[in-house]
Amino acid sequence: QVQLVESGGGLVQAGGSLRLSCAASGRTSGSSAMGWIRQAPGKEREFIAAIRWSDVTTYYANSVKGRFTISGDNAKNTVYLQMNSLKTEDTAVYYCAADALWRLAAGTSGSWGLGTQVTVSS
After folding, report:
1. From edge to edge, which strands make up the β-sheet containing 68-73?
2. What is the DSSP letter of 104?
3. CA 30/CA 8 separation, integer angstroms
4. Over the stretch 34-55, which tens digit does the pLDDT of each residue have?
């Protein structure tokens, strides 16, 4: 099992920034990548970004590319999501996930955190 704990969510005005953090513990050796998935009220879950540890390859959803940046420290099993130029449509619960990169991008990851709420006001 992989335990994932997110932090950094909150209320921010449109155009502002937030930085999310996720710390992983437990059996992390089977997860080659970590990333972020969000779900807005009444909407389906949406892949946001992921980083593959072996070559530090990053992958972003088109909806956030250019605004969000994922980074991490593999030695600390920690990933971050720097969110800039936030829009009201970014309002959602953001979940940290750990799995293979392709599974994260497909929304089929097996390990998720409990999520952190991000609310963007106009």
Report:
1. 2-7, 18-26, 78-83, 68-73
2. H
3. 26
4. 999 999 999 999 999 999 999 9
